[in-house]
C-alpha cells in the first residue's frame, strides 16, 4: 500500500479513541480524503494544530484499506486562528467547508480545492464582507460541480433576459411566462450583484447596497440548499450583515 503526498484543506475532524482524530480533507489531486491522525490530541503532538478545520497543509499519507493514515503535515496556510476570532468569518467558513464536503463526494478537481483555499484566505484577511465571500464561493463551487445558475437567459426556456424572477428549482432566473406563481422577484441591483458574485467582480460586490446583498444571499442559499438536498446546516448561523 503506497505512501503519497498532497496539499489539503481540513474540512472537519472527529475524535477517535483517547488521542486520535479522523480528519476529513479536500485535497488538490486526490479529491476528498478521510484519514486517521494518530496522537494529535496529545499536547506533545508534532502536527495536531496543523490539522484543525480551515487549515491548509502539505500532508504525507499512508493508503489504508478504509481510512488513510497521516504520517506528516506541514502548514501551508494557517487561516484557522484569524477566522475563529471573528464570528462572521467563522460561520461563513463553516458553511464553506460544509458545502465543500457535500459537493465533493466524488473525486474533486483541483479547481474546487483552489477555490476553497482562496475563499478561506480572503476570510482570514477580511478582504471583503464574510457573507459576500461565502456567497461568491457557493455560486462558483456549484458551477464547478455542474450546477451553474442561469443569471441572464431564462433557465427554463432560454429566452434572453434580463428577467425579474428567480426560481431555485428551475435553475435560476426565469422569464415572466415560465415563472410559477409566487416566484421570488429580483430587482436590477440584486440581479447585477448575483452576476458580480459569480464573476468575482469585487469592486461591484463591495459597492452593492445592503438590500441587494441580503436579497442575493437569500437566493444563493436557497439555490445551494435545493441542489444539495440535505441543506447546509451552518448557513443557519451566518449573518446577512457580516462586515469585513
TrEMBL record:
GO-annotated biological processes: DNA recombination; double-strand break repair
Domain DNA replication/recombination mediator RecO N-terminal: 1-78
Annotated Pfam families: RecO_C, RecO_N
Keyword Transmembrane carried by entry: no
Gene Ontology CC: bacterial nucleoid
Keyword terms: DNA damage, DNA recombination, DNA repair
UniProt superkingdom: Bacteria
InterPro entries in alphabetical order: ARFGAP/RecO, DNA_rep/recomb_RecO_N, NA-bd_OB-fold, RecO, RecO_C
Protein family (similarity comment): Belongs to the RecO family.
Protein role: Involved in DNA repair and RecF pathway recombination.
Protein name in the entry: DNA repair protein RecO
Gene name in the database record: recO
